[in-house]
Design brief:
heterodimer; A: GMP Synthetase, Chain A, domain 3; 41% helix; B: alpha+beta; GMP Synthetase, Chain A, domain 3; Ribosomal Protein S8, Chain: A, domain 1; three-stranded mixed beta sheet; 9 strands
Chain lengths: 76, 223
């Protein structure tokens, strides 16, 4: 899951080298924390949160198979 | 693409003069705002707005762009652990990417949500890579065609209902593509009118009887 978020985020931002993804695993849910350069924050969130929402949709689709919920947190 | 600078009292005015220069509507221009003007006070300290504009190059979609689109989606699927085969093809001004996979349900999602999200992200990524505005349609197992048919059928069904009852019907919120299909399905029907209501990305389509025309005809007939 971490790789998926990293792939998407790096492809969207201007500073891919500053993309950091951390996965905090819980028993049923894992939280994926995404951190990007300050200027790139808008790029991963998108207009009215559309990009962030699309990423979350993809993430939950990908995580149904492994039967584990994944939550995306975008850190400021 | 060659950019030229334009000035005006406001950005709108600058854009207008750019449109006049290129003789095209603003939609066909690539516009960058260099500085927002300020009106100043009593004509003092006013600054002109400055923009850069160039003609938008319309979509020669080359082989390399097609290949790039396919690669992005392929990698996307690998990262999602949903292996599939992707084929790319140009149709009119858009790229159609088709996915063959063993488990299409996962990629389509509830009401096509996952497919729409994938399509949106792949479009963004490819547009960023090629620095062009590119339209992409993603499809799995001819889902788009089936979905469009279902929407058209639904539009016609509700259209009939509105005609019978004479009362407007409001459909559930839909994204712009789906709304377009509803509008198109009922466009030719003179007895009905459709409009989108609401704010944001997801709006509701209201199908209502075209009363105005009816009453006009009635008054014309009686008078």
């Amino acid at each position: 899951m971490k790789e998926l978020v990293k792939f998407i985020a790096q492809a969207l931002v201007d500073h891919p080298d500053q993309v950091q993804v951390l996965e905090v695993e819980g028993e049923q849910t894992s939280v994926i924390e995404l951190k990007v350069a300050k200027e790139d924050l808008g790029k991963v969130i998108g207009k009215q949160g559309r990009t962030a929402r699309a990423m979350r949709t993809i993430l939950s689709a990908a995580s149904t198979k492994i039967r584990k919920r994944a939550v995306l947190e975008i850190l400021e | 693409m060659e950019f030229q600078e334009f000035e005006g009292k406001s950005t709108e005015e600058a854009i207008e003069s750019a449109c006049a220069h290129f003789q095209v509507p603003s939609e066909q221009l690539e516009i960058e705002i260099v500085s927002v003007g300020s009106p100043g006070l009593f004509g003092l300290g006013s600054r002109k707005a400055k923009i850069r504009a160039a003609l938008r190059e319309d979509g020669e979609i080359g082989e390399s762009t097609l290949a790039q689109g396919r690669e992005i989606l392929q990698e996307f699927l690998e990262k999602m652990h949903e292996p599939g085969r992707v084929t790319a093809e140009q149709e009119d001004d858009r790229i159609v990417l088709r996915i063959e996979t063993e488990d299409p349900g996962v990629l389509i999602g509830k009401q096509g949500q996952t497919l729409d999200a994938l399509q949106y992200l792949v479009t963004k990524i490819l547009s960023k890579k090629t620095r062009k505005k590119i339209r992409i349609t993603l499809d799995v197992e001819a889902y788009r065609a089936r979905h469009n048919d279902a929407l058209t059928q639904m539009a016609l069904k509700y259209g009939e209902k509105v005609k019978r009852s004479g009362k407007a019907v409001t459909l559930s919120p839909m994204n712009p593509y789906d709304r377009r299909i509803i509008h198109l399905a009922l466009q030719g029907d003179k007895d009905l009118k459709t409009m989108s209501r609401g704010e944001g990305l997801y709006k509701k389509v209201v199908i209502s009887p075209a009363r105005k025309r009816e009453s006009q005809e009635e008054s014309a007939a009686s008078g």
